[in-house]
Amino acid sequence: MCGISGIFKYTQITEEEISKLHLINSQMRYRGPDDSDVWNTNKVALAQVRLSIIGLENGHQPIFNETKSIALICNGEIYNYKELKDELIKKGHVFYTETDSEVILHLYEEKDVDCLNDLRGMFAFAIYDINKEQLFIARDKVGKKPLYYSEIPCGLVFSSELKAIKNNFLSNPELDEKIIKNTMRYSYSVEISNTYIKQIKRIEPGEYVIINNNGFKKSKYWKKLNSYNFDGSYQEAKNKTLEILTESVQLRLRSDVPIAILLSGGIDSSAIACLARETNDNIHAITVGYEGVHDCDEREIAKQLCKEKNITWHNLELNQKDYKNYFDEYVSYLDEPVCDVAAIAQWGIYKKAKEEGFTVLLCGNGGDEIFYGYPAHNQTAENIQFIEDAKNFLWQRRKLSKWVKYFWRNKTKLKSFIETYNPYYFDNLFIKDMREFSYNWSDNNDLSGFCFEKFLNSEKYAIDAVYSYLFNIWLINNCYFLSDKLGMAHSLELRAPFADSKLIDFVSSLPMNYRYKEGHPKYFLKEILNEVVPDYILWGNKKGFTPPYEIINELIKNYNNKYFDVKLNSYNQILIDKFLSLNLK
């Protein structure tokens, strides 16, 4: 795990630009406290700071191929590196390190950009081919690791951190008010490529860039697609899904440094713990709760599971007195404003996990988004589907008697629809707080938000439309973003077995009636885990790890404005106010 940065110039790299990369390395030393370097030719400069996870002693970057004609810097982990390395050695490749990253270099020699298809992991990397004078930069399939870029005079600069580019290469950063407004409203950015600074973009998940003397070009190499083309039985689907999930967990236990599982007491993290324990005797789990008695505290459940599975359990507690400091600390490390209230707790968890001596943590991120784990979103999708099905039926059949029979057969769905339907479910999120926010935006009346229809129109079923949004926007821009930024701020690596592209591809190939059952969130996953995870977890009530709201209300009440000159009445607003005051000086 590392932080990477670099420059490609159509003209020639200057000493000033190389000095800026050295400065960036020092500014994000927390991402890689174990090693750093800057390497350059007359066309390109590559910088990297390293957090040593695999191959502790000889993993200095850049890593070069046998002829020193290709250089690599990488942030992330390639979990299937052992299998890839064995195949590459058989083909005659010589390895000079024990790291996982080096396999990318030799795969590139074999397959060029198609090397990306063989990688199971989370990564952002840059390869410079000296002979071609060509830079190849890429981001992992699901967007676990960030990668930003900006066009500069006569070239392009890229980095793991937006602020590295903003603070060192932009003389006049331009604020994108629309993105700030939508972030204030929805808690996270709803943009895939654009950022709150107009000149800085994201490399998208599953995307790569080629830049040479002819210019630069972005290409997509992976996307989550719901094909529904699996033709096996339901039992075969369950067996294969469990096999891939088990493999995903085992691959993510590869580490040369201490590793633990973030165990909440919910299904996803409990599945990871149980599957890890099946083949490993020395498993550690961390569970965090809040001081006092709170509904979201699941420590007793986690403690029971660890006792049954003989897992070493670490019981940690967050003190609400620390929350003001936590808030101030973690906002200073954010690259983009993300307003999830659970981030304060995340910050405290990572801080305490590092104090316990761990460098790698496994978490349950991504399980809800591929196994339909959100009841409210499921209900919204079912309502949308009911409307579409009813419209299709009524369009084809004009007799009143048939309409009556149709609605009688579907009376349960009709009753649920009447009780819960909200046509503006996504669009109305946090709208009240935004309307009460009286700041003089340049487009003050624009509260239109984003277009959910593009997701609705791209999928066969409404449930997949809703979860396409959650997978492509919420999961990447909120969950994965926070796990990277807050984890790396403590020199911690966060691994997510449910983010495995092989698992996602397989589940996406299953027929809808296999993977989703109306009114039963995560039913398919629960069926798979029936003999792996205890029933009191599988069929227990879902809980989120949000802080007690009296703590959040106290933060809002005592906050002093720093950027906006109007009253702030929500957590989203105070976070963005503080963020902008730190980043737009």
CATH homologous superfamily name of the largest domain?
Answer: Aminohydrolase, N-terminal nucleophile (Ntn) domain
N-C termini distance: 30 Å
Residue runs with pLDDT of under 50 for 5 or more positions: none
Q: Radius of gyration in whole Å, from Cα?
A: 24 Å
Determine the CATH topology of the largest domain.
Glutamine Phosphoribosylpyrophosphate, subunit 1, domain 1
Q: Please state the overall shape, judged from the principal axes of the Cα atoms.
A: globular
Based on the coordinates given, report the CATH architecture of the largest domain. Answer: 4-Layer Sandwich
Q: Provide the spatial order of strands within the biggest beta sheet.
A: 2-3-1-9-8-10
What CATH first level of the largest domain would be assigned? Alpha Beta
Strand content: 15-25%
Number of helices: 23
Structural class per helix/strand content?
alpha+beta
Report on the biggest sheet.
Answer: 6 strands, antiparallel
Tell me the total number of β-strands. 17
The helix content, as a percent range, equals 40-55%
Mean pLDDT: 89
**How many structurally independent domains?**
3
Task: Please summarize what this structure is.
The chain has 585 residues and is α+β, with helices and mostly antiparallel strands.
Topology:
Blueprint (H helix, E strand, L loop, with lengths): L1 E8 L5 H13 L7 E6 L3 E7 L12 E2 L5 E9 L2 H10 L11 H10 L9 E9 L4 E6 L8 E5 L2 E5 L2 H8 L7 H10 L14 E2 L4 E6 L2 E6 L13 H18 L7 E4 L4 H13 L4 E7 L8 H11 L2 E7 L4 H11 L8 H14 L4 E3 L4 H5 L3 H22 L3 H10 L1 H10 L10 H5 L17 H4 L5 H27 L4 E3 L5 H9 L2 H4 L7 H6 L6 H4 L10 H10 L12 H13 L2
Helix pairs in contact: 6-18, 9-10, 9-23, 10-17, 12-14, 12-17
